Amino acid sequence: MNKMFIFLLLLTAVAVFVYMRYPDIITIMKDRVMTMTEKTEKLPAPTEDNLITSLNKALADEWLAYYQYWIGAQIIKGVIADKVKAELLEHAGEELKHAVMLAERIIQLGGMPLLEPKEWYNFKVCGYIKPSSTDTKSLLRENLTGEICAVSEYKKLMAKTEKTDPTTYNMLASILVDEEKHVKDLNELLVEANKA
Q1: pLDDT (tens digit, 9 = 90+) per residue, 36-91?
Q2: 157-186 residue pLDDT tens
Q3: Is the pTM of this model over 0.90?
């Protein structure tokens, strides 16, 4: 007999012995696998008071803000367009950085970040403002609207976490600094564009 056949025969004998000695072993193993699967695959219910859901809403908005800035930079035309394009691309990069921070924190908290882009629209708060024009001033106003919303939403999230989760609070505070700077930058560019 060859060695493989002997090995399989021995393995089968051990399996039969274990099953006969411990008949509930299959049930226990199935239960263990189901419990592990539930822990790793179950997303939190979308309730307003759920921090993971709130962070996923912020994550959705960051991805949409990233795209809004990026696409605006691609299509922009008009006064000081080159200067505004550079600023829009810089802001896009910062929004992407925020998305990374939020996704990492969601995972640290035992949650799962949004896995499909189509979910962004289900979770968005500030959302995405489709460019109504390629004009510099129009794009600046639309991005400014999104940033004002983001500042408001981050302040609400910070109020939720201030006393209960200092790590999340500090992360949100650092994102808020960038969002407030975006508002300032966009306002200054809008003033400059109006004068040009």
Answers
A1: 444 444 444 444 458 999 999 999 999 999 999 999 999 999 999 999 999 999 99
A2: 999 999 999 999 999 999 999 999 999 999
A3: no
Please state which of the four CATH numbers 3.40.630.30, 1.20.1260.10, 3.40.190.150, 1.10.357.140 is assigned to the domain occupying 46-195: 1.20.1260.10
Of 45, 28, 49, 56, the closest CA to residue 125 belongs to: 56
Residue 135 pairs with which residues in a beta bridge? 77
Which residue carries 């939190």 as its tokens? 44
Residue ranges of alpha helices (H) inside the chain are 3-21, 25-41, 51-75, 81-108, 118-123, 136-161, 166-195
Backbone phi and psi for residue 77, each to the nearest 5 degrees, phi listed first: -145, 155
Please give the Cα distance from 96 to 62 (Å, whole number). Answer: 7
From CA 187, how far away is CA 189, in angstroms rounded? 5
Q: CA angle, 106 as apex, 44 and 183 as ends, to 5°?
A: 115
Tokens standing for residue 194: 């109006």
